[in-house]
Amino acid sequence: MQRTYEVMFIVRPDLTEEDQDKLVSTLESQIGTAGGTIKSIDKMGKRRLAYEVRNFNDGMYILITLEGEGALIKEVERRLRVTEQVIKFITVRVDLEQKRLGKVKAIRDKHVRGKGTRAAEAAAAAEAAAPVEAAGAEPAPAV
């Protein structure tokens, strides 16, 4: 079953743009050969770290959104762990959150903003009745 994950990793701040591209392209090819698909790659740039990690106070943030199996994520995490340029990483499964937000949005769309379900039902009934009245009504006589 394909699931959606976000993999955020921080690379050394002294890493050149070419080396970052090379690292991302190798991860991209590994994910592709393992049967995963990459939805997006977002290079967020250099940011200050909340605390010192491996004697670094800054880092270059990269976010990859991908779809794949759990075994694929395990392999990606293993590769990130042994890659010297990567100083920190985290993987989050986001498909459950997207499903939950979809349900919340559907419930919110069902309600009329600021009113309850009765107001929404009354508004829907009024909309349904209005075209019927307009179609069946005879034109008013001219005075």
Structural class: alpha+beta
Record the strand order, biggest sheet: 2-3-1-4
Question: What is the H-and-E element order?
Answer: EHEEHEHH
CATH class of the largest domain: Alpha Beta
Query: How much of the polypeptide forms β-strand, as a percent range?
Result: 25-35%
The total tally of domains equals 2
> Helical element count?
4
Radius of gyration, in angstroms, nearest whole number: 26 Å
CATH H-level homologous superfamily name of the largest domain:
Ribosomal protein S6/Translation elongation factor EF1B
| CATH fold title of the largest domain | Alpha-Beta Plaits
Average pLDDT number: 85
* CATH-defined architecture of the largest domain: 2-Layer Sandwich
> Count of DSSP E strands?
4
Which segments are poorly predicted (pLDDT under 50) over 5 or more consecutive residues? Answer: none
Outline type: elongated
Helix content: 40-55%
Main sheet makeup: 4 strands, antiparallel
Distance between the termini: 71 Å
Give a verbal description of the structure.
It is a single chain. The chain is α+β, with helices and mostly antiparallel strands and 143 residues long. The chain folds into two domains: 3-93, Alpha-Beta Plaits (2-Layer Sandwich), CATH 3.30.70.60; 99-131, no CATH class. It contains four helices and four strands. It has helices at residues 17-33, 70-82, 95-110, 117-136; strands spanning 3-11, 37-53, 56-68, 86-93. The protein has a four-stranded antiparallel β-sheet with strand order 2-3-1-4. Strand 2 (37-53) and strand 3 (56-68) form a beta hairpin. The longest helix is centred in the last third of the chain and has 20 residues, at 117-136. It is elongated and about 80 Å long. It starts with a strand and ends in a 7-residue tail after the last helix. The relative contact order is 0.18. The model has no long low-confidence stretch (mean pLDDT 85).
